[in-house]
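writing this on my phone so excuse typos. first protein, seq and then structure
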Amino acid sequence: MAASTADSAATSSPEGPEVFMPTTEERKRLLRGVIPRARRLGVDDTLRGWSWSAPPLLSPYEVPLGLSEVASAYCETGRDVYARRVLGTEPEPNEKMLLGGSLHGTLRDWVVHAKRSLYACGVGRIEEALERIRTFPAPELPEAKTLLQYETDAIEFRIREAMSQFPRIGTDAIVAQVLPVTLGQMLDGAFLGLSRRLSTDLLNLGEPVVLDIIFDDEKRSFHRLTLAGYALVLEAVYEFPVDVGLTVYAGFRDGRLRMEREFTVLGDEVRMEFIEARDEKQRMVAEAMDPGPCEGCEAWCGR
């Protein structure tokens, strides 16, 4: 089986592209390094999502967990899933979860607004489109303001760059060029024994790339499981290969946005790791096996 590897690329360029968009250097590294390496390593066909009807992907339990419940290991023993699914405890979101949810929501609304502005004006009225993009209502949250200011500056740069490079570009093409992202793609995870209402973000860089934007958190080894899980679901639903994922770590310090992007080759190892986590947590719920609290468990989880 091929090993899964990660390729880190730290970025905080003031004139760089959007949060989710790789810089020119990162894109070159992706196209000439990460993707070719993923192709060389390959993926065992039994670990492609379209092989969901046979082991090891075949789900042994009728417990449709959310993908984040499987992939997350913030609670090291998985008791958060036990508490929610077996004990019926409703978690109270902490400050970090509330901030992340608010920023994700703001970003999704802004992307829709920016695309709508471009389609409404077309390339024939690009200055008006830029003016419309700038009219997005300013959020109250300081971090959201910083994020949107960055996005607005960045998309103006990318639009002017595209218009300069491709003077005859059409409206649909420029949207694909400057905003090749789908935020909140809905997926049915039932093929893999998961929830039927999953939602993920995708980046189209010539190949589909699963995108995970994480706000105000450090790197964790299990973050790559989220990418692997969504790749498996996408392959099960659409039957095309998904070999690369991108995690964007975005934080705020002194009113500035700081970012680091990490590409992950979604090889056999990380796919198997996700499936093992799924089986283990589904078994825990199906058989009501209390794994016990971990050190630092949230109050609702460890009670």
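second protein below, same order as before
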Amino acid sequence: MSRLPAAVACDVRLQYRNGFYAAAAFVAVVLVVLLRWLPPETLRLLLPALVLANMQVNTFYFVAGLVLLEKAEGSLEALVVTPLRPGEYLTSKVLTLALLSLVEAMTIVVASYGLGFNPWPFAAGIALTAALYCLYGFVVVVRYDSINEFLFPSMLYTAILSLPLLDYFGLWEGWLVYLHPVQAPLVLLEAAFRPVPAREVAYGLLYGTLWVAPMAAWGVKAFGRFVVAREGVR
């Protein structure tokens, strides 16, 4: 088995064994029960922001939990002496958590809103959000050794991720929000539920994709600095 499929299979087993899929299913059921009470026009406004906010748990906090778990078990440091490359390690995390987020988000939307949305910008928004949140989550959490150290500062990190929601709900508006990397996938999620100018959809696809490469490079650099280098001095 090649390295990446083996890493994906390992991540799926780890996520299943630690209840990640059960937690995502529980959240989906609760949200569907609550959202079915809302009228369609309210759901069209709320669902893009709700999906984006919920993905902070499925990606940012789930990848943080995986990394801290692997640190506690010593398996993360053990990866240094295996053929698995840092880029493959990060790709496995992104792929598995993106798929989990897509299945959960599709379930929530179809069960609460129905099929009256465009699945293509929706799926693209989920994929880009998952990539950005997972890579950002890894870069942040790899500096910490326990969940207690990580939880309090994580609120600041997720607040930074949530800044485009201020513009989405009209609380603070300005062109600067279009420089934020999360604004791009949010535009795509919004385009799934209401007409959005083609130039904004193009912005969402291109600008969101452009951010993935530097975030991946930052993740690989963080892996080298906080995992490989620390293991090398022990």
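The chain has a mean pLDDT of 92. thats all i got for now
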